[in-house]
Structures are given as C-alpha cells and as structure tokens.
Amino acid sequence: MSDCDFPRPHWLTPLSDPRNEAILSAAFKVFEEKGLHGATMLDIATAAKVSKETLYARFDNKEGLFYALLAWGSHKASVDLEVLTEALEDDPVGALENYAGACLGKMMQAESIEAYRIVVSEARRMPDVARVFDEFTCQAATRLLDRVVDALHAKQLAYVADRSAFAEAFIGLLRGNLHHGVLLGIAPMPSEDEVAAYARRAMKMLLAAFASKEPPRAGFVD
Fold first, then answer.
1. How far apart are CA 13 and CA 71, in angstroms?
2. Whole-number percent of the chain with pLDDT over 90
3. Which end of the chain is more exposed for a tag (fewer CB within 10 A), N or C?
4. What is the CATH number of the domain that holds 140?
5. pTM greater than the 0.70 cutoff
6. Number of domains making up the chain
7. 4: how many CB neighbours lie within 10 A of its CB?
C-alpha cells in the first residue's frame, strides 16, 4: 500500500485496491491546488508517492484519472437507491425527502463542493469533463426520480406530465441558495440537520408545484 499523505474522506466507500485509493486521494488534492488543466501526471505521481510508470499503468491520462475520481465519489448512490426502494411504495413522499436529503448531503461535502468548482473552471476548456460530471450527478438523479414519480402517481400525490421538468425542479430546488452560498464561499458549511431541513422544504415546494393536474406555468404569475 502507498504511504500517500492524503487519506480517504470518511464518507467515501473504500476501494478494493488501496494503491488506486491513494492515487485518487492524492490526485484530488493536486487538482484542488492547481486545477485540472494546471496539474500534471508527474505532480500526481509525486503526491501519491508512486512512479509515473505505475500511474500510467493504472490511468491512461489525467482526464481518465479525474473521471475515476468522479465515479468513486458517486459510488454510494447505489446504496441510496436501496434505501429509497424499501420505503417507496408505502411512503413515496418520505422516500423522496430522504433521497433529497442524501443527495444534498453529498453535494455539500467539502470534496464535492471543490469538485464542482474544478469542473466549472475547466468546462469550456474540457467539455468532456463537464459532460461526465453531469452524468454522475444530475442525470443519475433523473433516472432514479422516474421511480419516485411512478410511486407518487400510484397514490395520487402528484401529477407529473413532464418528467424532465420534475427532474429539473428537483435539482434546482435542492441546490438553491444553500449550495450556491457555500460554493461561492460566502456561507458556512451547514450542519447535517440544516441540510435535512433544507431538503425537506425543497421537496414540499416541489410537490406543491406538481400537486395539480394543470402543468406549472412558466415565468411570473400575474
């Protein structure tokens, strides 16, 4: 195992290969300091205390390494799905609120905030990085929300004619000013209780918007 100085964040699932885990932990710190564009594979190898040959044997390039880092950070979504499925049919509203809280909690992790900043800063120069980040975050949530919508329909708790609009509202309301403020560094990191309360309020607003058979109106209400 590498004696890399950058430990795995407590909330991340351990990888089966400790050397890959050490490399990814070190790579994140290098990306955080120098940005994805400014970092080099030599920088990462040095930080991870491995040779460049070892690094290239495991990852083709730094973009591939960053994709692996995003996949690692998103891995625990599968656990969230299992928890959601258990309560979905009996209490879809509660399941939605629990899932929203889990999603927002992951968004508000310090490492997730920093990854978001890195992706935004590199999006124009490296659009594939932005695409992959979106796939691991927003698109993953959209696929899961289809099952939530089915459960809400079954109990007549919501009327969702446009599922893409529901997914967009879910992400938009969930991120909101809380995520925005922390992202900009103008608001403190919230507590777990604050994250859960914010998620519940956002989901109440979401369900209120889709409580009628009439679709939500775009723009301002007269």
1. 11
2. 37
3. C
4. 1.10.357
5. yes
6. 2
7. 21
